[in-house]
Predict the structure.
Amino acid sequence: MDELWQNSIERLNARRESAKAAGGAERIAKQHSSGKLTARERMEALFDDGTFVELNDQTMSRASDFGMDKKKRIGDGVVTGYGYIHGRVAFASSQDFTVGGGSLGEAQAQRICRAMDKAMEMKAPFISINDSGGARIEEGIDSLTGYADIFYRNTIASGVIPQISVIMGPCAGGACYSPAITDYIFMTDYSQMFITGPAVVKSVTGEVISSADLGGAAVHGSTSGVAHFVYPDDLSCLNGVRELLGYLPQSNLDSTLEVPGVAVDNSAALADIVPADSKKAYDVRDVINSIVDMGSFFEVQPLFARNIVVGFARLDGETIGIIANQSLYMAGSLEINASDKAARFIRFCDSFNIPLLTLVDVPAFLPGSQQEHNGIIRHGAKLLYSYSEATVPKISVIMRKAYGGAYIAMNSKGIGADVVYAWPVAEIAVMGASGAVNIIGKKAIEAAEDPVAKRQELLDDYNEKFMNPYIAAEHGYVDEVILPEETRSKIATAFKMLKTKDKILPYKKHGNIPL
Amino acid sequence: MSKYRITLDGKTYEMDVELLGANGAVIAPAKVAAPVAAAPVAPKAAPAPAAAKPAANAGSGSVVAPMPGTILKVLKKDGDAVKAGDVVLVLEAMKMENEITAPVDGAIASLSLAEGSTVGGGDLLFEVK
């Protein structure tokens, strides 16, 4: 090898080393000491071992204002590339907090966008790992435009490829809107998301609040519903991402991975789990775990709007999405947050061809001024809209209560359910007995010699007539009344039949879902 | 690899379960590198915040009505010692008898509701101090 070759090779090696060195040993040590992995280590943890390939490792900022020409580093504070997850290709970006606090400038944004464009062309999932102080102020409006370019791509890719955001440090200001547009947000215990941080909150409103109380993982996992999954640290979190992707297809044109699981049918236990007395509560997750492949239920947003349970599971090895009323919380009634949570999940599943199973035990929409004034009408409408619009196979099991508008909203026959089953204890009616009798029996009760006895008579009559699934079955709103122990086999048989379902909505640019 | 805890005749066993494909290949999305393999049974790794209830104007040991309803049963009184999870009240609401439990260990305070009284959503039911 001549000297010219030697020099060229040394130069490349030096540049490669410089990219790998990231923000330097000291900052990497600081990242480690706070329990975090570096941007590259996160990529290694995310992808199947040894499969990560970096793209555009030589990316460099072109900025020179405010001394940026002396501060800039190869890589520009982000690592991007592709690798394999369960043997299937995926693309990712991972912000590097050790380089300029992971701040996003023009070059970093371009690098991220290039990887996103590849994901779209390859029809593969995109995972964005966020650990950044925010916009790079020195780069001014070019930095803001960088965010805009990412948001735009997030939106165009929505419903085409699964997009997952992972928050592993700060994510503040406009930066929150890329994760918000994507399908799922993962957070680690020490991450934060907020549009305005504690300092601005204090100066504007006088409210003193810590960043964890303002936008920590616990807040977003339970109160705001912004985060879908919360994990204690980087490794468990990235493993969670891997686990989720195991349920999803590569794109809206692909089918999900088939994972032959252990098909244990515990439907026989259902009559013990669910009390026939519909005033008594139970954990609907026990019902789910009794009918899906063993251990396959993966709950989404487990601590937010707990009155409805949503998540993925496998039935005979294939992914299904489950929506179930949870009687343990707010009697399983539907309210604003539950409607939003379920509607978004249904639309995700429909986008990615994942069949839906709905387990119904719903007393009503929650009454009250708080709900009305915050817009339960427009929020509840999302649930009806999402079910009606979804063209994937849709099966319902009415376990116990199905009342009024909430009955309609929970994937009833009228809004497009393909198959509706009901257990023999199901109560399908426009409203509960006492409410109904007070209205339709008002005159008869007033005119009666013994109003108390008359009321009771009317109550018994109403209960006898309506507190069962048979009228609904006679009128075809319920396809079959089934025994609890038949539940899994009936569902599995119906999903098999529905595999070739081919339903096409009329041409439209897009619908106008109430937001 | 998934961790399962199984209780048999009162004795608890912990077992690692690995899902195998038809050809014996590991198919569960478990990664060797990860020390904490997330179990496929829900994101258990997510630590459940003890009292992640919708915000109320009261402190962490306060329990508010999750929805409007009628007090069906009052099972404890002020000063009674309770453990987290003990049923304190039964609230009849939304066609159900909803058990209202103590969020933390402590003693009941500010419980002034009688059976049959109605409460609004968000009303303070009792405190545990």
The longest helix of chain A spans residues 3-21. The radius of gyration of chain A is 27 Å. Residues 3-245 of chain A form a domain with the 2-enoyl-CoA Hydratase; Chain A, domain 1 fold (CATH 3.90.226.10). Chain A has a mean pLDDT of 94.
